[in-house]
Known about the structure:
One of its GO terms (molecular function) is transmembrane transporter activity. The chain is mainly alpha-helical. Helix content is 78%, strand content 0%. The chain is built from 17 helices and no strands. The chain has helices at 2-6, 37-57, 64-71, 75-103, 105-122, 129-143, 145-157, 163-188, 194-215, 229-241, 243-272, 278-283, 288-305, 307-324, 330-358, 363-391, 394-421. The protein starts with a helix and ends with a helix.
Amino acid sequence: MSQAIDSHTTSSGSSGSSGQPNPDRNADYMGIERGTRTYTRAVLAMLAAGLATFNGLYCTQALLPTMTEDLGITPTQSALTVSATTGMLALCIVPASILSEKFGRGRVLFISLSLAIVVGMILPLVPNITALILLRGLQGALLAGTPAVAMTWLSEEIHPKDIGHAMGIYIAGNTVGGLMGRMIPAGLLEVTHWQNALLGSSVAALIFGVVMVILLPRQRLFQPKKISLKHEVAAMVGHWKNPRLALLFATAFLGMGTFVSLYNYLGFRMIDQFGLSEVLVGAVFIMYLAGTWSSTQAAALRDKIGAGPTVIFLSITMIVSMAAMAINNLWVTLAALFIFTAAFFALHSSASGWIGIIATKDRAEASSMYLFCYYVGSSVIGWLSGFVFTHASWLAFIGWLLLLLLGVLSISASLAKLAKTTK
Protein backbone atom coordinates (compact mmCIF):
# COMPACT_ATOMS: atom_id res chain seq x y z
CA MET A 1 0.00 0.00 0.00
CA SER A 2 2.92 2.34 0.70
CA GLN A 3 4.02 1.93 -2.91
CA ALA A 4 0.56 2.92 -4.05
CA ILE A 5 0.75 6.02 -1.90
CA ASP A 6 4.05 7.01 -3.44
CA SER A 7 2.81 6.52 -7.00
CA HIS A 8 0.42 9.50 -7.06
CA THR A 9 1.34 12.88 -8.46
CA THR A 10 0.83 16.33 -7.06
CA SER A 11 -1.46 17.37 -9.87
CA SER A 12 -3.87 14.59 -9.06
CA GLY A 13 -4.29 15.91 -5.55
CA SER A 14 -3.52 12.46 -4.15
CA SER A 15 -1.25 11.88 -1.23
CA GLY A 16 2.16 10.41 -0.74
CA SER A 17 5.85 11.07 -0.95
CA SER A 18 7.76 8.87 -3.28
CA GLY A 19 11.19 9.87 -2.10
CA GLN A 20 12.01 10.91 -5.70
CA PRO A 21 12.49 14.51 -6.88
CA ASN A 22 10.14 15.81 -9.55
CA PRO A 23 12.18 16.39 -12.72
CA ASP A 24 9.46 18.64 -14.13
CA ARG A 25 9.52 21.21 -11.34
CA ASN A 26 10.69 24.77 -12.04
CA ALA A 27 14.32 25.51 -11.23
CA ASP A 28 13.28 28.50 -9.09
CA TYR A 29 10.69 26.52 -7.10
CA MET A 30 11.42 27.05 -3.39
CA GLY A 31 8.57 25.17 -1.77
CA ILE A 32 4.86 25.15 -1.01
CA GLU A 33 3.58 28.62 -0.22
CA ARG A 34 0.90 29.60 2.25
CA GLY A 35 -2.46 30.36 0.68
CA THR A 36 -2.34 27.52 -1.85
CA ARG A 37 -4.47 24.38 -1.82
CA THR A 38 -1.36 22.22 -1.59
CA TYR A 39 -0.22 24.13 1.50
CA THR A 40 -3.58 23.50 3.15
CA ARG A 41 -3.37 19.79 2.38
CA ALA A 42 0.20 19.64 3.67
CA VAL A 43 -0.44 21.31 7.01
CA LEU A 44 -3.67 19.35 7.56
CA ALA A 45 -1.84 16.10 6.81
CA MET A 46 0.89 16.96 9.31
CA LEU A 47 -1.76 18.07 11.79
CA ALA A 48 -3.36 14.63 11.49
CA ALA A 49 0.05 12.97 11.84
CA GLY A 50 0.62 14.85 15.08
CA LEU A 51 -2.85 13.94 16.33
CA ALA A 52 -2.29 10.24 15.65
CA THR A 53 1.24 10.09 17.02
CA PHE A 54 0.77 11.94 20.27
CA ASN A 55 -2.61 10.34 20.89
CA GLY A 56 -0.77 7.01 20.97
CA LEU A 57 2.34 8.24 22.71
CA TYR A 58 0.64 9.45 25.89
CA CYS A 59 -2.48 7.29 26.01
CA THR A 60 -1.56 5.81 29.42
CA GLN A 61 -0.61 9.05 31.18
CA ALA A 62 -4.12 9.96 32.35
CA LEU A 63 -4.58 6.37 33.49
CA LEU A 64 -1.55 6.25 35.80
CA PRO A 65 -3.42 6.65 39.12
CA THR A 66 -6.03 4.04 38.09
CA MET A 67 -3.39 1.58 36.86
CA THR A 68 -1.34 2.09 40.01
CA GLU A 69 -4.29 1.11 42.20
CA ASP A 70 -5.69 -1.62 39.94
CA LEU A 71 -2.36 -3.39 39.36
CA GLY A 72 -0.96 -2.82 42.85
CA ILE A 73 2.17 -1.02 41.64
CA THR A 74 4.01 2.20 42.50
CA PRO A 75 3.59 5.53 40.67
CA THR A 76 7.14 5.19 39.34
CA GLN A 77 6.32 1.76 37.86
CA SER A 78 3.13 2.96 36.22
CA ALA A 79 4.98 5.99 34.80
CA LEU A 80 7.24 3.53 32.95
CA THR A 81 4.34 2.98 30.54
CA VAL A 82 5.05 6.54 29.39
CA SER A 83 8.84 6.57 29.80
CA ALA A 84 9.31 3.26 27.96
CA THR A 85 7.38 4.64 24.99
CA THR A 86 9.19 7.95 24.81
CA GLY A 87 12.54 6.29 25.51
CA MET A 88 12.25 3.79 22.67
CA LEU A 89 10.93 6.51 20.40
CA ALA A 90 14.06 8.54 21.19
CA LEU A 91 16.37 5.62 20.42
CA CYS A 92 14.68 4.92 17.08
CA ILE A 93 14.26 8.47 15.81
CA VAL A 94 17.72 8.69 14.29
CA PRO A 95 17.55 5.31 12.46
CA ALA A 96 14.06 6.19 11.15
CA SER A 97 15.33 9.54 9.93
CA ILE A 98 18.27 7.90 8.15
CA LEU A 99 15.96 5.39 6.44
CA SER A 100 13.79 8.26 5.20
CA GLU A 101 16.81 9.72 3.43
CA LYS A 102 16.79 6.72 1.11
CA PHE A 103 13.19 5.55 0.98
CA GLY A 104 11.32 8.84 1.24
CA ARG A 105 9.49 10.66 4.01
CA GLY A 106 5.96 9.61 3.01
CA ARG A 107 6.73 5.90 3.04
CA VAL A 108 8.33 6.09 6.49
CA LEU A 109 5.39 8.11 7.81
CA PHE A 110 2.89 5.55 6.55
CA ILE A 111 4.70 2.44 7.81
CA SER A 112 5.52 4.00 11.16
CA LEU A 113 1.96 5.06 11.98
CA SER A 114 0.36 1.88 10.62
CA LEU A 115 2.42 -0.52 12.71
CA ALA A 116 2.18 1.63 15.84
CA ILE A 117 -1.60 1.70 15.57
CA VAL A 118 -1.69 -2.10 15.26
CA VAL A 119 0.32 -2.39 18.48
CA GLY A 120 -2.06 0.06 20.13
CA MET A 121 -4.95 -2.26 19.33
CA ILE A 122 -3.15 -5.07 21.19
CA LEU A 123 -2.52 -3.07 24.39
CA PRO A 124 -5.87 -3.91 26.05
CA LEU A 125 -5.06 -7.64 25.82
CA VAL A 126 -1.83 -7.66 27.85
CA PRO A 127 -2.00 -9.57 31.18
CA ASN A 128 0.32 -7.55 33.47
CA ILE A 129 2.36 -4.39 33.92
CA THR A 130 5.57 -5.97 32.60
CA ALA A 131 3.96 -6.95 29.32
CA LEU A 132 2.29 -3.55 29.07
CA ILE A 133 5.60 -1.71 29.54
CA LEU A 134 7.31 -3.91 26.93
CA LEU A 135 4.53 -3.42 24.41
CA ARG A 136 4.47 0.32 25.03
CA GLY A 137 8.19 0.35 24.35
CA LEU A 138 7.58 -1.39 21.02
CA GLN A 139 4.87 1.12 20.20
CA GLY A 140 7.29 3.97 20.90
CA ALA A 141 9.90 2.44 18.61
CA LEU A 142 7.38 2.20 15.78
CA LEU A 143 6.03 5.70 16.35
CA ALA A 144 9.54 7.13 15.98
CA GLY A 145 9.23 7.41 12.20
CA THR A 146 6.53 10.06 12.39
CA PRO A 147 8.18 12.84 14.43
CA ALA A 148 11.54 11.96 12.86
CA VAL A 149 10.19 12.67 9.40
CA ALA A 150 7.39 15.22 9.86
CA MET A 151 9.60 18.16 10.85
CA THR A 152 12.03 17.35 8.04
CA TRP A 153 9.18 17.09 5.52
CA LEU A 154 8.03 20.58 6.48
CA SER A 155 11.56 22.01 6.43
CA GLU A 156 12.13 20.63 2.93
CA GLU A 157 8.79 21.21 1.27
CA ILE A 158 7.39 24.43 2.75
CA HIS A 159 8.65 27.75 1.43
CA PRO A 160 11.21 29.22 3.91
CA LYS A 161 9.01 32.23 4.67
CA ASP A 162 6.15 29.96 5.75
CA ILE A 163 8.05 27.30 7.73
CA GLY A 164 7.32 28.99 11.07
CA HIS A 165 3.58 29.01 10.43
CA ALA A 166 3.50 25.41 9.19
CA MET A 167 5.65 24.17 12.06
CA GLY A 168 3.34 25.92 14.49
CA ILE A 169 0.32 24.07 13.09
CA TYR A 170 2.19 20.76 13.29
CA ILE A 171 3.11 21.42 16.93
CA ALA A 172 -0.53 22.38 17.53
CA GLY A 173 -1.48 18.95 16.20
CA ASN A 174 0.96 17.45 18.67
CA THR A 175 -0.69 19.28 21.55
CA VAL A 176 -4.23 18.31 20.52
CA GLY A 177 -3.07 14.73 19.94
CA GLY A 178 -1.51 14.68 23.39
CA LEU A 179 -4.72 16.12 24.83
CA MET A 180 -6.88 13.50 23.13
CA GLY A 181 -4.47 10.78 24.23
CA ARG A 182 -5.32 11.76 27.79
CA MET A 183 -8.94 12.87 27.47
CA ILE A 184 -10.29 9.92 25.50
CA PRO A 185 -9.13 7.19 27.92
CA ALA A 186 -9.89 9.37 30.95
CA GLY A 187 -13.46 9.91 29.75
CA LEU A 188 -13.95 6.24 28.95
CA LEU A 189 -12.89 5.34 32.50
CA GLU A 190 -16.30 6.54 33.65
CA VAL A 191 -18.05 3.76 31.76
CA THR A 192 -15.48 1.00 31.25
CA HIS A 193 -12.19 -0.56 32.38
CA TRP A 194 -8.83 1.10 31.64
CA GLN A 195 -8.00 -1.57 29.02
CA ASN A 196 -11.02 -0.60 26.93
CA ALA A 197 -10.11 3.04 27.42
CA LEU A 198 -6.78 2.29 25.72
CA LEU A 199 -8.62 0.64 22.83
CA GLY A 200 -10.74 3.76 22.33
CA SER A 201 -7.59 5.85 22.09
CA SER A 202 -6.14 3.51 19.44
CA VAL A 203 -9.30 3.75 17.33
CA ALA A 204 -8.97 7.55 17.34
CA ALA A 205 -5.32 7.24 16.23
CA LEU A 206 -6.43 5.00 13.36
CA ILE A 207 -8.84 7.63 12.08
CA PHE A 208 -6.20 10.37 12.13
CA GLY A 209 -3.69 8.10 10.41
CA VAL A 210 -6.09 7.53 7.52
CA VAL A 211 -6.62 11.29 7.17
CA MET A 212 -2.86 11.84 6.96
CA VAL A 213 -2.47 9.24 4.20
CA ILE A 214 -5.28 10.79 2.15
CA LEU A 215 -4.07 14.39 2.37
CA LEU A 216 -0.26 14.26 2.33
CA PRO A 217 1.07 15.77 -0.94
CA ARG A 218 3.88 14.29 -2.95
CA GLN A 219 7.33 15.70 -2.16
CA ARG A 220 8.99 17.80 -4.86
CA LEU A 221 12.20 18.92 -3.19
CA PHE A 222 13.33 15.66 -1.61
CA GLN A 223 16.63 14.37 -2.95
CA PRO A 224 17.23 10.69 -2.06
CA LYS A 225 20.77 9.85 -1.09
CA LYS A 226 22.81 6.75 -0.54
CA ILE A 227 22.89 5.81 3.13
CA SER A 228 26.40 5.93 4.56
CA LEU A 229 27.06 5.39 8.26
CA LYS A 230 30.18 7.53 8.03
CA HIS A 231 28.26 10.43 6.49
CA GLU A 232 25.38 10.19 8.97
CA VAL A 233 27.69 10.17 11.97
CA ALA A 234 29.67 13.08 10.51
CA ALA A 235 26.44 15.03 9.90
CA MET A 236 25.23 14.57 13.48
CA VAL A 237 28.62 15.38 14.96
CA GLY A 238 28.71 18.45 12.75
CA HIS A 239 25.35 19.60 14.09
CA TRP A 240 26.58 19.22 17.67
CA LYS A 241 29.59 21.38 16.79
CA ASN A 242 27.23 24.19 15.82
CA PRO A 243 26.77 26.06 19.15
CA ARG A 244 23.23 27.20 18.39
CA LEU A 245 22.06 23.74 17.41
CA ALA A 246 23.72 22.17 20.45
CA LEU A 247 21.95 24.64 22.74
CA LEU A 248 18.62 23.93 21.05
CA PHE A 249 19.18 20.20 21.59
CA ALA A 250 19.84 20.86 25.29
CA THR A 251 16.70 23.01 25.51
CA ALA A 252 14.65 20.12 24.13
CA PHE A 253 16.12 17.69 26.69
CA LEU A 254 15.50 19.82 29.76
CA GLY A 255 12.26 21.45 28.62
CA MET A 256 10.45 18.28 27.65
CA GLY A 257 11.80 16.41 30.67
CA THR A 258 10.34 19.06 32.97
CA PHE A 259 7.03 19.19 31.12
CA VAL A 260 6.44 15.43 31.16
CA SER A 261 7.53 15.16 34.80
CA LEU A 262 4.90 17.69 35.83
CA TYR A 263 2.09 16.04 33.87
CA ASN A 264 3.11 12.51 34.94
CA TYR A 265 2.72 13.18 38.64
CA LEU A 266 0.35 16.14 38.92
CA GLY A 267 -2.60 13.74 38.62
CA PHE A 268 -1.62 12.01 41.87
CA ARG A 269 -1.60 15.36 43.68
CA MET A 270 -4.96 16.28 42.17
CA ILE A 271 -6.47 13.11 43.60
CA ASP A 272 -4.67 12.94 46.96
CA GLN A 273 -4.53 16.65 47.84
CA PHE A 274 -7.52 18.18 46.08
CA GLY A 275 -9.86 15.15 46.00
CA LEU A 276 -10.55 15.11 42.27
CA SER A 277 -11.92 12.00 40.57
CA GLU A 278 -10.03 10.20 37.81
CA VAL A 279 -12.24 11.70 35.11
CA LEU A 280 -11.70 15.22 36.47
CA VAL A 281 -7.96 14.61 36.57
CA GLY A 282 -8.20 13.57 32.93
CA ALA A 283 -10.05 16.81 32.21
CA VAL A 284 -7.05 18.73 33.55
CA PHE A 285 -5.26 17.77 30.34
CA ILE A 286 -7.54 20.19 28.51
CA MET A 287 -4.79 22.64 29.44
CA TYR A 288 -3.08 21.32 26.33
CA LEU A 289 -5.35 23.65 24.37
CA ALA A 290 -3.24 26.49 25.73
CA GLY A 291 -0.31 24.91 23.91
CA THR A 292 -2.38 24.46 20.76
CA TRP A 293 -2.97 28.20 20.65
CA SER A 294 0.50 29.32 21.75
CA SER A 295 2.39 27.08 19.33
CA THR A 296 0.65 28.74 16.39
CA GLN A 297 1.42 32.21 17.79
CA ALA A 298 5.09 31.62 18.53
CA ALA A 299 6.22 32.60 15.03
CA ALA A 300 4.43 35.95 15.30
CA LEU A 301 6.06 36.63 18.66
CA ARG A 302 9.47 35.70 17.27
CA ASP A 303 8.97 38.02 14.29
CA LYS A 304 7.97 40.86 16.62
CA ILE A 305 10.67 40.72 19.31
CA GLY A 306 13.29 38.39 17.84
CA ALA A 307 14.17 34.72 18.34
CA GLY A 308 16.52 35.29 21.28
CA PRO A 309 14.18 37.47 23.41
CA THR A 310 11.33 35.05 22.62
CA VAL A 311 13.02 32.00 24.15
CA ILE A 312 14.13 34.03 27.19
CA PHE A 313 10.61 35.37 27.77
CA LEU A 314 9.08 31.92 27.45
CA SER A 315 11.65 30.37 29.79
CA ILE A 316 10.95 32.98 32.47
CA THR A 317 7.22 32.42 32.05
CA MET A 318 7.69 28.69 32.63
CA ILE A 319 9.70 29.36 35.81
CA VAL A 320 7.18 31.78 37.30
CA SER A 321 4.20 29.53 36.56
CA MET A 322 6.00 26.46 37.92
CA ALA A 323 6.77 28.30 41.15
CA ALA A 324 3.09 29.22 41.50
CA MET A 325 2.19 25.51 41.50
CA ALA A 326 3.85 25.22 44.90
CA ILE A 327 0.86 27.12 46.34
CA ASN A 328 -1.62 24.72 47.93
CA ASN A 329 -4.67 25.95 46.06
CA LEU A 330 -6.46 24.12 43.25
CA TRP A 331 -7.42 27.20 41.21
CA VAL A 332 -3.95 28.72 41.44
CA THR A 333 -2.49 25.37 40.36
CA LEU A 334 -4.80 25.15 37.36
CA ALA A 335 -4.10 28.73 36.27
CA ALA A 336 -0.35 28.19 36.62
CA LEU A 337 -0.58 24.93 34.68
CA PHE A 338 -2.41 26.69 31.86
CA ILE A 339 0.30 29.36 31.57
CA PHE A 340 3.13 26.84 31.90
CA THR A 341 1.67 24.65 29.15
CA ALA A 342 1.25 27.60 26.79
CA ALA A 343 4.82 28.76 27.40
CA PHE A 344 6.31 25.29 26.94
CA PHE A 345 4.68 24.59 23.59
CA ALA A 346 5.51 28.06 22.31
CA LEU A 347 9.13 27.41 23.27
CA HIS A 348 9.07 24.03 21.54
CA SER A 349 7.53 25.52 18.40
CA SER A 350 10.14 28.30 18.33
CA ALA A 351 13.02 25.86 18.81
CA SER A 352 11.68 23.47 16.18
CA GLY A 353 11.39 26.23 13.60
CA TRP A 354 14.84 27.51 14.49
CA ILE A 355 16.36 24.08 13.81
CA GLY A 356 15.08 24.13 10.23
CA ILE A 357 16.52 27.59 9.65
CA ILE A 358 19.98 27.04 11.18
CA ALA A 359 20.56 23.61 9.64
CA THR A 360 20.81 24.40 5.94
CA LYS A 361 21.97 20.87 5.05
CA ASP A 362 21.38 17.40 6.52
CA ARG A 363 18.15 18.71 7.98
CA ALA A 364 16.78 15.24 8.67
CA GLU A 365 19.73 14.55 10.94
CA ALA A 366 19.32 17.91 12.69
CA SER A 367 15.60 17.40 13.28
CA SER A 368 16.10 13.83 14.46
CA MET A 369 18.84 14.87 16.88
CA TYR A 370 16.60 17.58 18.32
CA LEU A 371 13.79 15.08 18.76
CA PHE A 372 16.19 12.47 20.15
CA CYS A 373 17.12 14.88 22.93
CA TYR A 374 13.46 15.88 23.33
CA TYR A 375 12.27 12.34 23.98
CA VAL A 376 15.32 11.21 25.95
CA GLY A 377 14.51 14.11 28.26
CA SER A 378 10.91 12.93 28.46
CA SER A 379 11.94 9.38 29.27
CA VAL A 380 14.94 9.86 31.55
CA ILE A 381 13.93 12.99 33.45
CA GLY A 382 10.30 11.84 33.59
CA TRP A 383 11.45 8.59 35.20
CA LEU A 384 13.94 10.18 37.61
CA SER A 385 11.35 12.72 38.72
CA GLY A 386 9.24 9.81 39.93
CA PHE A 387 11.75 9.08 42.66
CA VAL A 388 11.68 12.71 43.79
CA PHE A 389 7.89 12.69 43.81
CA THR A 390 7.68 9.38 45.70
CA HIS A 391 10.29 10.09 48.36
CA ALA A 392 10.02 13.87 48.86
CA SER A 393 7.38 16.52 49.46
CA TRP A 394 5.48 18.37 46.75
CA LEU A 395 7.54 21.49 47.47
CA ALA A 396 10.75 19.50 46.93
CA PHE A 397 9.35 18.13 43.70
CA ILE A 398 8.54 21.63 42.44
CA GLY A 399 12.02 22.74 43.53
CA TRP A 400 13.55 19.95 41.44
CA LEU A 401 11.58 21.03 38.38
CA LEU A 402 12.52 24.68 38.95
CA LEU A 403 16.17 23.67 38.97
CA LEU A 404 15.71 22.10 35.54
CA LEU A 405 13.95 25.23 34.26
CA LEU A 406 16.81 27.43 35.45
CA GLY A 407 18.95 25.34 33.12
CA VAL A 408 16.50 26.10 30.29
CA LEU A 409 16.71 29.82 31.06
CA SER A 410 20.51 29.74 31.07
CA ILE A 411 20.52 28.01 27.69
CA SER A 412 17.97 30.50 26.32
CA ALA A 413 20.18 33.40 27.37
CA SER A 414 23.13 31.81 25.58
CA LEU A 415 21.00 31.29 22.46
CA ALA A 416 19.94 34.93 22.48
CA LYS A 417 23.56 36.05 22.77
CA LEU A 418 24.62 33.81 19.88
CA ALA A 419 21.68 35.00 17.76
CA LYS A 420 22.96 38.59 18.10
CA THR A 421 26.55 37.75 17.22
CA THR A 422 25.61 35.66 14.15
CA LYS A 423 23.34 38.21 12.46
